[in-house]
Task: inverse folding
């Protein structure tokens, strides 16, 4: 059976395997394949290859199925699309009958699933919540693990995307001990908590009181509560952090531009800004860069250090990140 695999030299195989496993990106359904000095690491079908480390080589390859387990496609006769978030399996089907058929197969299979849900609405409102149809089980709270951190959350009450695990790791991997790290839209802490684990002093702000409570609990769970301060508020109304931040995360695509003045106020003498945006593929970075330069002038010089295509968002639209250094 042909599946997407990461192709890697044998000498780097174990290190890459561990990284993919920590990100929840390895397939539980297929065997790792070895040919000469090359290893092929099969990817979870729910993983978007575009969200992985761009330096990794992703190829199609025929690999063996693991015979000791039963998977949903063994029961269905076709390969369903789903993603896992802790013990919750998420499907995305417009046809209710097909969604329930997939849910039944997931429950009967050997996948570790306590609850199966189907997306029932788009992400809506300033709290970025969506509705779900619960097809199996009943508990929408779970603990999700990625890159060595654990995040408790309730998908019915907070926003969380497991597809962004690799992108979060990319940003956090640049954090230095002692750094002042500010997440303007922190959610349950998927940027804040691992940044604190790297030794940063972290502040996370979110409008959603449920998300902020989970952020505090996740800081405790991961042993970094002493380095994490959480605020439930509109970040534009939080005081006491002027000229404070060495690094700012603005992961609020579509709306982040409205908060750039606040980001500039938060920035210290030198600050790296991770600005997330959704734009047409014809010019995915230009509008964001122009907005940042306008907000930063005349106090800061702006240097674009990275332009990342995070994932495809919709036909002809890309979710992107601008890594920008502000220097006073």
Result:
């Amino acid at each position: 059976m042909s599946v997407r695999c990461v192709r890697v030299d044998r000498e780097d195989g174990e290190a890459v395997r561990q990284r993919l496993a920590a990100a929840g990106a390895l397939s539980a359904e297929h065997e790792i394949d070895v040919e000469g000095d090359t290893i092929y690491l099969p990817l979870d079908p729910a993983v978007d290859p575009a969200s992985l480390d761009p330096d990794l080589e992703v190829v199609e390859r025929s690999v063996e199925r693991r015979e000791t387990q039963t998977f949903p496609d063994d029961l269905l006769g076709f390969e369903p699309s789903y993603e896992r978030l802790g013990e919750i399996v998420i499907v995305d089907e417009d046809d209710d009958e097909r969604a329930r058929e997939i849910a039944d197969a997931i429950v009967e299979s050997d996948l570790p699933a306590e609850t199966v849900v189907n997306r029932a609405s788009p992400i809506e409102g300033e709290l970025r919540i969506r509705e779900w149809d619960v097809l199996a089980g009943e508990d929408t709270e779970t603990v999700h693990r990625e890159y060595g951190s654990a995040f408790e959350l309730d998908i019915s009450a907070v926003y969380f995307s497991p597809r962004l695990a690799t992108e979060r790791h990319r940003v956090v991997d640049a954090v230095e001990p002692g750094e002042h790290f500010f997440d303007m839209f922190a959610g349950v802490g998927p940027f804040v908590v691992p940044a604190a684990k790297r030794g940063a002093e972290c502040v996370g702000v979110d409008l959603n009181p449920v998300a902020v409570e989970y952020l505090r609990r996740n800081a405790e769970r991961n042993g970094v509560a002493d380095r994490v301060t959480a605020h439930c508020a509109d970040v534009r109304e939080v005081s006491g952090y002027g000229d404070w931040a060495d690094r700012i995360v603005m992961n609020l695509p579509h709306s982040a531009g409205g908060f750039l003045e606040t980001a500039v106020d938060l920035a210290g003498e030198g600050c790296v800004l991770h600005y997330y945006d959704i734009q047409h593929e014809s010019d995915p970075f230009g509008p964001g860069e122009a907005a940042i330069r306008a907000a930063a002038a005349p106090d800061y010089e702006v240097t674009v250090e990275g332009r990342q295509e995070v994932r495809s968002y919709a036909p002809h639209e890309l979710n992107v990140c601008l890594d920008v250094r502000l220097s006073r």
